[in-house]
Amino acid sequence: MWIWREFIRGAFKENPTFVLLLGLCPTLAVTVSVENGFWMGVAATGVLISSNVIISSLRKFIPAQIRIPCFVIIIAGFVTITEMLMKAYLPDQINRSLGIFIPLIVVNCIIFGRAEAYAYSHSVGRSFFDGIATGAGFMLALLLISAVREVTGSGTILGLEILPGYKPAYIMVMAPGAFLVIGLLLGLFNALRLRHARRAAVVFERPITSQTAQGQ
Fold this sequence. Notes:
69% of the residues lie in helices and 2% in strands. It is mostly helical.
């Protein structure tokens, strides 16, 4: 089913963080805790889905020569709505932690990339599920990175102590720790993708039968 293929593509095969290496600035900055990573993922996914749907709906009316400014206006509108909702309903601590990175979603390469590469040339339905799939991939990356950094750097998960007596490695909640974690997870992700590709190649490899051998 194409919906499942879209999800697998966005979440794994073309994961925006671990495969395409997009959106690394907010990924490195806000993933000091799982809560921050979750809400950043929610905000980016909401903007991604909404902008994909609107851009796809208007694609026949947006001239190719001015499509980038049009994308900016549409994305900026949804980012403004998202920021206002978060400031109204989320605790001040979360808003302070995410800081400038919510407004910067306007120029996030993930959002622009899907608008240009997909929404501008596909139907509304497909663009909607593309937004969900890509957002899920970004959310997965944020949660993995933030979970590792929070556990190793603070000894907590979602603010709850899970390692009594553990001496936190404070470097993990600093910039060097962010680069270290994303590098290790990137290597692991690529190793898993390579292993899967090798297994798929073995499965689809044509077996050499006795008749084939005789023909040679």
